[in-house]
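User: Structure please.
Assistant: Input sequence and predicted structure:
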Amino acid sequence: MPDRTDYSALIAGHTAVIEMINSGDAGLPVLTQLLRVAQPALGAAGMAFVEFAPSGGRVIAATGAAEWTVGRPLPANDPVTICLLAGPRVQCVRTDRFSNALAGELAERGLRRMVVSRAEIGGHTVGSLHALYLAGDEEPTAEERGVVGYLGSCIAHMYGDQSGLPVHGDGPVVAALADGLAVVDRDAQVRLWNPAAAQVTGRSTAEAMNQPLPFPLPPSGQVLDHRLPSGRWLRITSGELPGPGALRVVTFRDTTDQQRHDHERDLFVAVTSHELRTPVTVIKGYADTLTDHWESLSETDRRQAARVIGQRANELARLLDRLLSSAAEAWPGDGPPAPFDLTETLRVAIADLPADLRRRTTLEVPVELPRAIGHRQSLATVLTELVTNAGKYSPPDSPIDVAAGADGQTVCFRVADRGIGVRPEHVERAFDRFWQGDSGDRRRYPGTGLGLYLVRRIVEQQNGWVFLRPRSGGGTVAEVRLPRR
């Protein structure tokens, strides 16, 4: 510690700080420069400034032997915090007399004395300035205490001008923001990290402070969509804080749901257009043939054309029903689940299947099957979807087995085919909307990827569950379970 404060260096350095402010610099760069000026003038080993908010304090700037403290918090109920916010505005404190972690680390590094001055505006404490001295240094004089008090008042004046301060990540305004907010310095190191930033990225303030941003920094005024390694999507913007580009403010929000919805919309358009193209083309072709060549066609040819048009129109109607049902919040016309005869429901549903599927389907039910609780009409739809799915993924004319059963709590039915089977990793994905085992313009199997999605939604609305499993000997078993009466 020098015999006296180096006022010449202090005044020259303070003049340079004022010139920075007059040139447009603000906030942390000015504050940090003021600490750099004060440290040698006071003969201190390090300087630090703690910014306070209702939830406590945080070191936002530090120099010399205290530089490692930047970002460290001081909770509101911490003994050090209570000491700093009470008593004289300027005081001398021994770090080895406190038991908290930060004071302990300071003492271990030999920084056992400090002169502290609160920075106050209208009686409200915005922060505290700390001049730290080594254990062997003499006790700070009244002169040093007076200088630290003066510098604390200068910093308070900077806060009063709101020139880039406060920067505390837990401040009331910053903490209330729903979007992530960060401030980075010239070296792209994080100097502010608000609570929403920690929530959005999963990176705590302690992990983020004084580290590079965990995502790319877009040019000022531009927007960047970025996917984190966790799979979460962020929409990031940045801009310059007042001053010659010293600090940049970065805002970002979680757009994962929006990205998923955009993907589903694009997938919906692609899948729907793919599935509509074939029946519409066939219907138009046969309709044009009937219109242009009616007289030259035989009665048999006209009937065949009409039959094909009818079949394709039925396919279109069923596709539209699926699309509308997948967009609805609830299954149309459903009331509370009620007891119904599952055996009769299965028989009627199989009788209403298209002829080619009806011929392939067999039904096996026990003599006395308990009544299930659910919605009878929608269960017919479930069976139709499962049998149609089984027929699509199995060889033509191969059998499709429908069997029912019950245990002590549920009534179930199973649809088994002898087709290509289901991979273990696909048994859950198969129920996702628009998902299919194969995709692209050269898919082997037609469909929108909505059938199993609708099946699961209908069944779960009736307090039941549905799942897939491989069939012994090849193929797939789809099983639906409902509460029994």
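DSSP finds 14 helices and 18 strands in the chain.
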